[in-house]
Design goal:
The structure is a single chain. The protein is α/β, with parallel strands linked by helices. The chain is built from eight helices and 16 strands.
Length: 259
């Protein structure tokens, strides 16, 4: 049997060390090596590994947040950490094992043996049970992760990372010092300015229609007058957004040009 395996660690030496040790085992197929939690989420969803060697403490997106953010969870997860307190938490969330840096080759081989046994076992304990023990109860606003991406907004909310395609955003609304991102059936309260998001989204068909509103033009159904100087936008799924007099001319110009 070949075991699909992914390595995730923000330290280059650690990634290379684990990779070299795994290459000594002919049954291991390394499908991805990731330097951060964001790329780990993408790799796990794409490759669906059997075994995951996962660093816990990483900037922006840590190992626990990676697990909360994927729909697919490998059957064998080995946490890698340089801190005893994280190692303790790894056991609390029922990881198959943990490696405390620096670890010996023999300790690594023992961990890999445990991981293989978990993959081959018929145990009813699913690794997805990890998620039951690491969920946050925080209600703080979501945060934008500044990673280069062509058309995806990366948002961390309550310890889970969401990859939001620009095309799925209906409109954005300034809310005090935050922004509400409206999707089809969900919204995020983001700790960010509307002006900054406008600069990011404007090239993708988003247009400012009010000092507190930015709309995805693909969802505009009609423009309806409210008075001689004010209008409202009807969006395709029933939302209505006010158009202020300061932005109505630029809106009409945009709609004419896009016909």
């Amino acid at each position: 049997m070949r075991y699909k395996t992914i390595i995730v660690d923000d330290e280059k030496d650690a990634r290379e060390g684990i990779s070299l040790l795994l290459q000594q085992d002919d049954t291991i197929h390394i499908t991805a090596i990731c330097a951060d939690g964001f790329s780990a989420i993408q790799a796990i969803e794409q490759h669906k590994p059997d075994i995951l060697f996962l660093d816990i403490q990483m900037p922006e997106v840590n190992g626990f947040e990676v697990l909360r953010s994927v729909d697919y969870t490998p059957k064998a997860v080995v946490f890698v950490t340089a801190y005893d307190d994280f190692a303790l938490k790894a056991f609390e969330v029922r990881a198959i094992d943990y490696l405390l840096k620096p670890f010996s080759d023999s300790r690594f081989r023992k961990s890999l043996k445990y991981a293989k046994e978990r993959v081959n076992s018929k145990s009813t304990l699913k690794t997805s049970a990890l998620l039951d023990d690491v969920k946050r109860t925080s209600s703080s606003p979501a945060e934008l992760i500044e990673k280069p991406s062509a058309d995806i907004l990366i948002v961390k909310d309550k310890g889970k990372v969401h990859l939001i395609n620009y095309k799925d955003i209906r409109w954005l609304e300034a809310y005090d010092y935050y922004v509400k991102i409206h999707l089809k059936s969900h919204l995020f309260l983001l700790r960010e300015s509307l002006k900054k998001l406008e600069a990011k989204l404007q090239p993708f068909g988003f247009i400012r229609v009010h000092k507190s509103a930015l709309v995805n033009s693909r969802y505009i159904s009609s423009v309806e007058p409210v008075s001689t100087k004010e209008f409202k936008l009807n969006l395709k799924e029933g939302h209505q957004v006010k158009v202020s007099r300061n932005y109505k001319n630029s809106l009409f110009d945009y709609l004419k040009a896009s016909k």
